[in-house]
Fold this protein.
Amino acid sequence: MHQALQDDLDIRQLNALYADAVMRRDGELWGSLWHTDAIWHFLGAPIRGREAILATWEGAMAGFPVVFHSHHSGLIRVNGDSANCRWSIDEDIIDSNGSALRIIGVYNDTCVRTGDGWRYAMRRFDALYHGPGTLQVEHVLPYPETMNRRHGD
Protein backbone atom coordinates (compact mmCIF):
# COMPACT_ATOMS: atom_id res chain seq x y z
CA MET A 1 0.00 0.00 0.00
CA HIS A 2 1.24 3.52 -0.76
CA GLN A 3 2.78 5.02 2.43
CA ALA A 4 0.63 8.19 2.40
CA LEU A 5 -2.56 6.13 2.32
CA GLN A 6 -1.26 3.82 5.05
CA ASP A 7 -0.35 6.81 7.25
CA ASP A 8 -3.83 8.27 6.77
CA LEU A 9 -5.48 4.97 7.70
CA ASP A 10 -3.21 4.49 10.72
CA ILE A 11 -3.93 7.99 12.08
CA ARG A 12 -7.67 7.46 11.57
CA GLN A 13 -7.32 4.21 13.50
CA LEU A 14 -5.55 6.12 16.29
CA ASN A 15 -8.60 8.38 16.56
CA ALA A 16 -11.01 5.45 16.42
CA LEU A 17 -9.11 3.80 19.28
CA TYR A 18 -9.26 7.07 21.24
CA ALA A 19 -13.05 7.27 20.90
CA ASP A 20 -13.43 3.58 21.72
CA ALA A 21 -11.29 3.95 24.85
CA VAL A 22 -13.37 6.94 26.00
CA MET A 23 -16.67 5.12 25.44
CA ARG A 24 -15.45 2.00 27.27
CA ARG A 25 -13.50 3.95 29.90
CA ASP A 26 -10.35 2.00 29.05
CA GLY A 27 -7.55 4.02 30.66
CA GLU A 28 -4.86 1.55 29.67
CA LEU A 29 -5.72 1.83 25.96
CA TRP A 30 -6.37 5.58 26.15
CA GLY A 31 -3.01 6.24 27.81
CA SER A 32 -1.14 4.06 25.32
CA LEU A 33 -2.20 6.36 22.46
CA TRP A 34 0.02 9.19 23.74
CA HIS A 35 3.73 9.72 23.14
CA THR A 36 5.72 9.57 26.37
CA ASP A 37 6.50 13.32 26.22
CA ALA A 38 3.11 14.43 24.86
CA ILE A 39 1.29 17.62 25.76
CA TRP A 40 -2.49 17.71 26.20
CA HIS A 41 -4.13 21.12 26.34
CA PHE A 42 -7.01 20.31 28.68
CA LEU A 43 -9.39 23.08 29.75
CA GLY A 44 -6.78 25.68 28.82
CA ALA A 45 -3.92 24.16 30.80
CA PRO A 46 -1.09 22.15 29.21
CA ILE A 47 -0.62 18.75 30.83
CA ARG A 48 2.84 17.33 30.08
CA GLY A 49 3.83 13.68 29.86
CA ARG A 50 1.81 10.51 29.28
CA GLU A 51 1.49 9.65 32.99
CA ALA A 52 0.21 13.11 33.95
CA ILE A 53 -2.14 13.14 30.96
CA LEU A 54 -3.62 9.77 31.92
CA ALA A 55 -4.01 10.78 35.58
CA THR A 56 -5.81 13.98 34.53
CA TRP A 57 -8.11 12.05 32.18
CA GLU A 58 -8.94 9.44 34.82
CA GLY A 59 -9.76 12.20 37.29
CA ALA A 60 -12.00 13.97 34.78
CA MET A 61 -13.76 10.75 33.75
CA ALA A 62 -14.56 9.99 37.40
CA GLY A 63 -17.01 12.91 37.28
CA PHE A 64 -18.70 11.67 34.10
CA PRO A 65 -20.26 8.21 34.48
CA VAL A 66 -21.68 8.40 30.93
CA VAL A 67 -19.73 9.77 27.96
CA PHE A 68 -20.68 9.27 24.31
CA HIS A 69 -17.70 10.54 22.28
CA SER A 70 -17.52 10.90 18.49
CA HIS A 71 -14.86 12.22 16.09
CA HIS A 72 -15.90 13.69 12.74
CA SER A 73 -14.39 15.31 9.66
CA GLY A 74 -10.76 14.38 10.18
CA LEU A 75 -8.16 16.37 8.26
CA ILE A 76 -4.66 14.91 8.19
CA ARG A 77 -1.46 16.37 6.75
CA VAL A 78 1.54 14.04 7.06
CA ASN A 79 5.08 15.38 6.77
CA GLY A 80 7.54 12.52 7.22
CA ASP A 81 7.22 11.12 10.74
CA SER A 82 4.91 13.90 11.94
CA ALA A 83 1.33 14.81 11.11
CA ASN A 84 -0.93 17.76 11.82
CA CYS A 85 -4.58 16.82 12.23
CA ARG A 86 -7.90 18.49 12.97
CA TRP A 87 -11.02 16.67 14.15
CA SER A 88 -14.49 17.90 14.98
CA ILE A 89 -15.90 16.14 18.01
CA ASP A 90 -19.07 15.97 19.99
CA GLU A 91 -19.75 14.47 23.36
CA ASP A 92 -23.00 13.81 25.14
CA ILE A 93 -22.33 13.38 28.83
CA ILE A 94 -24.16 12.69 32.04
CA ASP A 95 -22.22 14.03 35.01
CA SER A 96 -22.04 12.57 38.50
CA ASN A 97 -25.08 14.67 39.51
CA GLY A 98 -27.18 13.11 36.73
CA SER A 99 -27.18 16.31 34.65
CA ALA A 100 -26.88 16.19 30.86
CA LEU A 101 -24.02 18.07 29.22
CA ARG A 102 -23.15 18.51 25.55
CA ILE A 103 -19.73 19.50 24.30
CA ILE A 104 -18.93 20.24 20.66
CA GLY A 105 -15.50 21.33 19.61
CA VAL A 106 -12.34 20.77 17.67
CA TYR A 107 -9.10 18.90 18.34
CA ASN A 108 -5.93 20.17 16.73
CA ASP A 109 -3.25 17.50 16.99
CA THR A 110 0.34 16.78 16.24
CA CYS A 111 0.93 13.05 15.85
CA VAL A 112 4.28 11.32 15.55
CA ARG A 113 5.29 8.00 14.09
CA THR A 114 6.86 5.73 16.72
CA GLY A 115 8.01 2.14 16.75
CA ASP A 116 4.55 1.31 18.14
CA GLY A 117 2.67 3.28 15.46
CA TRP A 118 1.28 6.79 15.37
CA ARG A 119 0.84 8.50 18.75
CA TYR A 120 -0.39 11.89 19.94
CA ALA A 121 2.50 14.27 20.61
CA MET A 122 0.15 17.20 21.23
CA ARG A 123 -3.64 17.46 21.46
CA ARG A 124 -5.43 20.74 21.91
CA PHE A 125 -9.17 20.79 22.41
CA ASP A 126 -11.18 23.96 21.94
CA ALA A 127 -14.87 23.88 22.82
CA LEU A 128 -17.32 25.51 20.43
CA TYR A 129 -20.33 24.61 22.56
CA HIS A 130 -20.30 23.64 26.24
CA GLY A 131 -23.72 23.59 27.79
CA PRO A 132 -26.89 21.72 28.60
CA GLY A 133 -27.55 18.45 26.83
CA THR A 134 -30.68 16.40 26.36
CA LEU A 135 -29.71 12.98 27.75
CA GLN A 136 -31.78 11.72 30.64
CA VAL A 137 -30.11 9.38 33.09
CA GLU A 138 -33.14 7.07 33.31
CA HIS A 139 -32.85 6.27 29.59
CA VAL A 140 -29.13 5.41 29.49
CA LEU A 141 -28.36 1.74 28.91
CA PRO A 142 -25.10 0.20 30.12
CA TYR A 143 -22.36 -0.72 27.68
CA PRO A 144 -22.79 -4.49 27.15
CA GLU A 145 -20.34 -6.28 29.46
CA THR A 146 -19.85 -9.02 26.88
CA MET A 147 -18.73 -6.38 24.38
CA ASN A 148 -16.58 -4.29 26.75
CA ARG A 149 -13.24 -5.36 25.36
CA ARG A 150 -10.86 -3.99 22.82
CA HIS A 151 -11.98 -4.51 19.26
CA GLY A 152 -10.44 -7.70 17.92
CA ASP A 153 -9.76 -9.21 21.37
Observations:
- The chain has one domain: 3-144.
- The domain at 3-144 is CATH 3.10.450.50 (Nuclear Transport Factor 2; Chain: A,).
